[in-house]
Structures are given as C-alpha cells and as structure tokens.
Write a structure and sequence with these properties.
Layout: H1 2-36, H2 39-46, H3 51-61, H4 68-80, H5 85-97, H6 100-109, H7 112-136, H8 169-205, H9 218-229, H10 236-248, H11 253-265, H12 268-278, H13 280-307, H14 312-315, H15 318-321, H16 325-353
Amino acid sequence: MIQTVQQIAQNIWDIILDSSFYILAGFLLGGILHIYIPTEKVRQILGKKGFASVVKASLIGLPLPLCSCGVVPTAYSLRQKGANREATVAFLIATPETGIDSVALSYALLDPLMTVYRPIGALITAVVSGTAELLFGRKDADTVNAQTAPAACTSECLPPAGGQASEPPRSRALQAIQYAFGNLLGEVGNWLMAGIILAGLVGALVPESYFERYQQYEALSLLAALLISIPLYICSSCSTPIAAMLILKGISPGAAFVLIIAGSATNVATIVAVGKMLGKRSMLIYLTCIFMLSLSLGLLLNWIYQHFAINIYAHMGSGSELIPQNLRLLSALVFLVLMFNIWHRTIRNKILRR
C-alpha cells in the first residue's frame, strides 16, 4: 500500500516536472492573446455569413486557451454581437479542443506527431462542423437573448476587450501576466491538476501494456473512448496527461486522440448550452460532426503510425528533454506555488462568504 502511494506521488511529480515549463509558457501566451487581440474586431469578422467566417472562427478559436466552461459564455457574447450560426459552431468546437497551453503540454508529454496532428484535427473538425451548420442548419438569423444566456462560469472566463491603444505597453503586459496566471490558471488549473493526479493514478494502478490486448479491435476501442468522453468534463489541458499515461499503458494513439478531441467538446453542459443557444437541429449537427470526425481522424492517426512505422513510445516526452533540468525544476516549483496561491484564494473567498 505504501509503495503504491509512493509510486502515485512519484508519477505526479514526474509529470509536473516534465510539463511545468510548457504549461507556464502556454498560459503566458494565452494571456498575451487575450489582452492584445481586439475582441470587437473578432465579433465583426464572425458576423459575416458564409464559409469564410467558418474558417476565420476556427482559426481564431484554435489558440485561445479556453475550456468548455469559458467558451460557452464567450460564444454567447459573440452570438449576441452578431456572430452567425456557422461561425458560432466552429468557434465552440475549435476553442475547447485545443489551445496554446494544451499544444505546449502535448509537446512536453506526447510525441511531435500528436502535437502537430491535434490542432490540425481540431481545425478540420471545426471547419467541417461549421460548414455542415451552414448547409443544413436553420437559415433564419435569430439571436440570443442576453437574459436567457446561462452563466456557464464566472466573468473571469470571458476574454477582456483587448486592443486598447490608450493603455501603455507596460500596463498591458502586466495585465497579460495577471490574466494568464490569475484568471486563466484559476479557471483551468484545477482541472489540469485533476488530470495530472488521474494520470498518476493510472500509471501506478494499471498494469503495463494492459490495453494492448484491445488494439486488435481498433474501431471498438475508438468507439469506447468516444462513449467514455461524452459525460466527462475534461478540458484540453486536463486530457493531455491522461492521454499520455493511457498510451503508455497500451491504448492506441487514435483512441487517445478521440478522448482528447471529443472529451473537450462534448460534455453535458456544453451540449445543453448549444441546444439552448442554437436550437436542437444545430445541436444534432454539432454532435454528429464531432462523433464522426473524431472517429475518422482517430483511425487515420493510427494508420499514419502503422504505415510509416512510427514508434510513439520512442518519442514521447521528447519535448521535456529539451529543457535543462534546473529550469524544469524551477518551472515546477513556480507552477506549484501558483496553484497553492489559487487554492488559498479560493478557500479564503469561501470563508469570507459565510
């Protein structure tokens, strides 16, 4: 029992040590994006109907480090400001499936192919889904009533206006840092730590190569990953260490990809919000496209690994090896200090409310 607990703790520390530098870098870039990209300009772009708005919404959503909690009120805000249905669907899919923080984390814990394939898969899923909404969704341009929009999370999840030319550069840089390691880390950090802890548990409790016996049932293993991902609330960063550990235990890269992509965009809260915001037809299009595309892209990813004889185990974690040991240790300590500060602030606020 004591040995198992020690192994779990060691796994958790190893993941934090390998990934903290990329986590901090990803959140910092996310904060910079939020502060320096003018939100009003984004809303103007997404208001123009057509395929071009779908592509633009997908490209805008890809780097934003918002999970399902943050993307829903943001999408409501964009919809209220005139974003069309197809752009809203594309934005809702592209944003939670990947982000700068999760791509950086993928490079730290997964291999280069998965790191590149992940945002490409998210982009394809978002563009195809938005196009399906354009072709088969409702044609009327109804808008969302601000009073009926559900609050999926606090206002801290929403991106600030950004792009204010009147603010001095130093002030805006400070805002980016504060948003990255305050608001943004406060929103995603707990889920990220939950993913790291769960990965540590899987690493200690699941036998080595346990899932290899199921790889012969390729389609069924991908379908199982899809069904498991539907009820779970896992943001793109949270799912990355879980996927990495499951791959080490024998799950196929394609099944891990399905868990990452579908799990980030199909939790129950998001599905309900899509139905309220865009209607049942759009919700059906949304789910059908995610299910079909995640499975297809997962099968394609497995084929790429097999066809080109790529050994994913030989390259996993190669990104962390590029960072000097002292810098990795410093990044891990900074990350833990920031997380303890968030937990302390949360507990203090709950005590003050009583």
